[in-house]
Each structure stands twice: as C-alpha cells, then as structure tokens.
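The following block was generated as part of the benchmark described in Methods. Ligand: heme C.
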Amino acid sequence: MATGQGADGAAVRRRPGGAVVLLAATALAALVLVAATRPEDDAPALVLTPEEAELALEFSPLPPIPADPTNAVADDPDAARLGQAMFFDPRFSRDGDVSCSTCHQPDLSWTDGRPLARGVSETPRHAMTLWNVAWNRWFFWDGRKDSLWSQALAPFEDAREHATSRLAVVHAVADDAAYAAAYEAVFGPLPDLSDAERFPAEGRPVPDDPGHPHAAAWDAMTEEDRAAVDRVYSDLGKAIAAFERRIVSRRAPFDVFVEGVREGDPEKQAAMSPSAQRGFALFAGRGRCLLCHDGPTFSDLEFHSNRVPVTNMGDGGRAQGIQDVKADPFNAASAYADDGGASATVRLAIAPKNLHFPGEFKTPTLRNVVRTAPYMHEGQLATLDDVLAFYSTMETALPPDPTGERFLQPRHFDEQELADLRAFLEALTDEELPEALKGPPAGF
Ligand code: HEC
Ligand code: HEC
C-alpha cells in the first residue's frame, strides 16, 4: 500500500480503484449522517470521520494466509501435526530441557515475558511473538531468514537456544517410532542413518568456529551424506512452519468494529469505545504510526529505526541481516526451496539495494500487543505506557542516522491522547486460541 503525506498533514493513500473508494466514502458519509441524526442516540457508536473510517477498512480483516511456494507441505495437516509435536518437544535440545515453546509460550502470546530470551543461556534479543508469522516476508528482528521453514532450522543449532546439531535432531526423529512414521508419511522414506561412522551422533557446520567438534564431525562426512541430512533437516523445518502457519490471531474488537463500519451496523461499531476509536484516528493520522505499522497485521513487514535506546550498540540489525540471508545455505534461492528458487529472485534481488542502515529492525505486529510485554528487540521498554511515552516525547531517542529515514517526530500526545492510543491498542486483543494449538498433539 502506498502511503504519502497530504498537505493538511493527514496520511493519504494512493491506490488504484479510486471510484470504489469514493463510493465507499459516500456510503460511509451517509452512514455517519444516519448514526448522528438518530434521535435516541446521543452518543453515536461511530465517532470517526468518513475518511478515518475508510482508513480502518484497510486494517481488517486479515486476508487469507499467503501461500508459501518454497514449502510444498505448508498447508499439509499431517506436516503441521509433526511440526507441532517438534515445537513443544524439549528432546530436540542439548540438555533435553529447551523447546521452541520455552521462548514462544502459547499462554504468553507466543513470547516468554522476559526482556532477553533465555534457552541454554541468554540470547541478545527479545523473543518475538509468533502471531500471524505466515504473513511475514523476512524473519527475525534483522530479517536474516527469508522463509518460515528456514527460520525454524536456526534455533536448534544456536548455542544459546537449543544448543544441539542437525545430526542429533535428524537422528532423534529417525530413532523414535512415532516421529519416524510421521516424517515418512509426509516426506517419504528416511535415509538409512544407522552407520555411525558415516552419520555421527552430532555434527553441523560451525562457520565461526571450524575447530568445534560438531564442525570436525560434519566436515569428515561425504558431501552426499551431508546433503541427505540437510534434506531431512529442511523437511523438519517445513513441518514446523506448517504448524506455525496456524498461529493466526482471531477476531479482536477492532475487527468487529470494522465489520460494523462496512455493514453500517452500530451494534458492531460499539465494539470499540469512542476513546479507542479516537486512538485509531491518532494512530492513522497525527501520530503517523501507520507509516510503519501498516496493513492487517499492523506491520509493513519491513525494517526501520524507531530510535529506541539500546544496550547493544554493536547489533547490526537489518544491515547485517541482509548479508546473512544472502549467505544462508537454506535461503529461498537454495536447492531446498520447493519452487526451485522462483520466489527468491524477487526477494533477494531487493535485499542488496543499499536502503538499510544499522539500527533498523523489523516492524513488529501490534495484534495482541497488550499481551506481549516487554517491548522492542531488546525488551528494553517494560510496558505499553513506556512505549507510548517514548513515541510521544522521543526525549530518550537515539540520534537519527544522518543517511536514514526521518519518519518519526515527537508528537507530544496529551494525557487523553495517550489513553486513547492505549485503548485502541487494547482493542487489537483477540479471543483465546483453541486448546488444540497450545500443546503437543496426541501420539508423540
Ligand atoms: C531461547 C529462546 C528461543 C527458542 C528456544 C526459540 N526461539 Fe524463536 N525467537 C527467539 C528470539 C530471541 C527471536 C528473535 C531473534 C533474533 O531476531 O535474532 C525469535 C524469533 C523467532 C521467529 C521469527 C518471527 C518473526 O516475526 O520474524 C520465529 C518464527 C521463531 N522464533 C520460531 C521458533 C521456532 C520454530 C523455534 C524452535 C525450533 C524457536 N523459535 C525457538 C527466541 C527463541
Ligand atoms: C518509522 C517507523 C515506525 C513508526 C512511525 C512507528 N513505529 Fe512502532 N515500531 C517500529 C519498529 C521498527 C519497532 C521495533 C523497534 C525495535 O525493536 O528496535 C516498533 C515497535 C513498536 C512497539 C513494540 C511492539 C513489540 O512487540 O515490541 C509498539 C507498541 C509500537 N511500535 C507502537 C507504535 C505506535 C503507537 C506508533 C505511533 C505513535 C509507532 N509505533 C510508530 C517502527 C515504527
């Protein structure tokens, strides 16, 4: 969606289909008129202007889950079942006590509630929520992965997270009857890994420490055997991704409100209090939040610096992430992508443009944001009020990068405006997830 700045300072969208927009706006104007003139209604459910109400339509509902052509089993229920089992299973870690759900807990909105995530040891970043990950183009705060399945391969081998190796993961699947059967039902026969000379218990590439025992074991294998392991390992990532694609936020009061705007239904419009509606108007208008938190997940899925103070000044953010994704042997241009690299050409071709600067991180989704404290890539802001206070004054903001973008300005929100913004963010909170997604499936 193209977003520009109108002369009056309001955010203005440029897009095709102006006639449709005009019609919608006219219909809305009529609707506001009806609501406002109804005699028994001294407080109309809709307090937005027609222009503001029209902007709200762009944020809801969530469109259908986007396809992932790099993952042939992305929507296969059996793959999702296998992936769900792995997601919650601590056996795929060095000491048998870390699973994906250690840091992505369903009851903490798929985060861990800590500023910095901790697996085997503490990591340098805050655990990201998994709500609506299927909509993302890039993964991690720095976008160093370009598919959901290749993202899933990283935590297992990160020394601070699961601290295991791909050979150990692949052996654990092959040696367990339930996992082996689930794998083979989706991906076909597992390779024979029983020869411990050819397929040691542990092993992985360790580019930054070639003397590591995992690296020595990996390097001693034949290229063919390494490729066989990588094939199974990437398949397991695809199964985990198939599960994560189901972590989709449900209808929040904001979505009910937007339905009400579309249908002209005052009862549904009342799902958002006048304060929350004013908060949306600020978010999309004078507050300019939508310049980055745009679209139905409230993220433009891209990278920006919001100049929030950081502890680790050495974190290269997106600038480093671009280098990493291009060098990743499991990227969407690799032999492991199921569309033969077709979608990677587009994605990786845009990456090298020198548009990104240190200090840029992925715009996080704001759906369910009241449940994902603390905030930012180091978890450096404890509460939503801290976040709003930061954006309001920007007193503590890092200096702008001289070559970087200048979207952010202090907006000096008053007490009422801060409360309105908060009420709006609260209206992005959905209903509970079904229990079936909150733990391992039966049979593993
Ligand atoms: C030790 C805690 C920890 C564990 C264990 C862990 N994660 Fe994460 N996860 C994080 C952190 C921290 C980030 C952000 C890291 C970064 O940007 O460098 C993250 C990021 C992600 C993202 C990116 C989301 C986005 O919007 O870009 C996904 C997806 C994810 N994790 C899935 C998984 C899966 C699947 C597993 C298990 C295989 C897992 N995580 C294990 C802490 C953890
Ligand atoms: C220039 C782009 C940009 C603008 C404008 C912007 N944000 Fe952000 N926002 C970001 C980025 C990038 C992050 C993550 C930064 C980081 O972790 O270093 C973020 C983080 C957040 C978070 C924390 C979410 C989480 O899960 O950690 C909230 C809440 C938030 N923004 C709300 C707002 C509000 C409200 C406004 C308007 C007043 C706004 N943002 C304006 C880019 C922007």
